[in-house]
Design a protein that fits this description.
about 270 residues; alpha/beta; 5-stranded parallel sheet; 3-stranded mixed sheet; about 15% strand
C-alpha cells in the first residue's frame, strides 16, 4: 500500500457510526482534512501540540468526565513523544489525574492546538451534552482555540472544531443538533465514530508519513484496556453513554471498541 492508500484506509477504519448518531454526512464533509492534519504535524519542524480534552457527564453516577477523549489524549502524548513532537495537556484536574500527567510542560512556540472530545460553545455560548443539557458550569479550562494550526476530533457535533461543519448538517442529522452544535471551527476536522479512534488514526497517519514503525505495543488493544481501567479508577471517569465508572467507551463492548484499533495496526503492517 502507498502512504496515501494507508491514510485513506485508516480514515475509513474510524469513520464508522456505532451509535447510529447520523454521522454519515458529517464524515464526508471534509474528506481531505484527516490527511491534511497528519501532514501538517508530520512536516512541521519542532512541532509542539497543545491537547485539550474533557467532556463532563453531569447525569452520571457519579457525575464525572467521560472515558472518550482522555484515553485518546494519553495515547497521543505517548505517540508524539516517540515522534519527537512536543505535547502539553489542557484539561480539568480530574482528567489530568486520570491520565496521570500534568499540564506543566511548556513550549517555546506552540505550532498546533488539538481538541479531542472537548465540549465547545454553541451559538448561545453554552456547552451542551448530546441530550441538550447545559454543562457550562462544570468546565473551568477554556482558553481560546487558536493554533497557529487547529485540529478538532469529535463524534457528535457539540465538540470544539465542529464549527467548521455547516449548521444545517448538524441541525438536520444530529438529535438536538440545532441547539448543541459547537460553533468553534478547526482548520482540520476529523469526525469519527468514537473520538478516541481519531487519536489512534492521527498517530498512525504520522507514522505512515514519517516512514517509521511505531514502538512495539503502542497499538495493542490489551494495553489500551489496561490503561483505561487505571484511568477510570484514578479519575474517576465514566462511560459517556451508560454514565457508569466502567472501563468502557460510549456503551460499546470492548471488542466493538477495539476493532478499529486492530484494523489500524494491520494497515500499518501492510506492505
Amino acid at each position: 500500500m502507498t502512504p496515501d492508500e494507508k491514510l485513506a484506509a485508516i480514515r475509513s477504519a474510524v469513520q464508522i457510526d456505532p451509535g447510529t448518531r447520523g454521522l454519515a454526512r458529517l464524515f464526508e464533509s471534509y474528506p481531505d482534512d484527516f490527511a491534511n492534519a497528519c501532514r501538517s504535524l508530520a512536516e512541521t519542524r519542532h512541532a509542539a501540540c497543545r491537547i485539550r480534552t474533557g467532556f463532563y457527564i453531569p447525569s452520571a453516577e457519579p457525575p464525572a468526565f467521560e472515558t472518550d477523549g482522555p484515553l485518546g489524549a494519553a495515547f497521543l502524548v505517548r505517540a508524539f513523544a516517540t515522534l519527537g513532537i512536543g505535547s502539553m495537556l489542557l484539561a480539568e484536574e480530574p482528567v489530568l489525574r486520570a491520565i496521570g500527567l500534568d499540564a506543566t510542560a511548556s513550549f517555546e512556540a506552540m505550532t498546533h492546538d488539538l481538541a479531542i472530545e472537548r465540549a465547545g460553545p454553541a451559538a448561545d455560548g453554552n456547552h451542551y451534552t448530546m441530550r441538550g443539557r447545559d454543562l457550562t458550569p462544570f468546565l473551568d479550562v477554556q482558553p481560546p482555540f487558536e493554533g497557529p494550526v487547529t485540529i478538532g476530533i469529535g463524534d457528535g457535533g457539540n465538540e470544539v472544531g465542529m464549527g467548521k461543519l455547516p449548521h444545517e448538517f448538524v441541525a438536520g442529522d444530529i438529535p438536538n443538533g440545532d441547539r448543541i452544535h459547537c460553533r468553534v471551527p478547526a482548520d482540520h476536522l476529523l469526525v469519527v465514530g468514537v473520538s478516541n479512534w481519531g487519536a489512534y488514526a492521527l498517530a498512525a497517519g504520522l507514522f505512515v508519513l514519517r516512514g517509521v514503525e511505531p514502538p512495539a505495543g503502542l497499538f495493542d488493544p490489551d494495553r489500551e484496556r489496561a490503561t483505561l481501567e487505571a484511568m477510570v479508577r484514578a479519575g474517576p471517569l465514566v462511560d459517556g453513554v451508560t454514565g457508569r465508572p466502567t472501563a468502557t467507551v460510549d456503551g460499546l463492548t470492548w471488542d466493538e471498541y477495539a476493532a478499529p484499533l486492530v484494523r489500524i495496526a494491520a494497515i500499518l503492517e501492510a506492505s
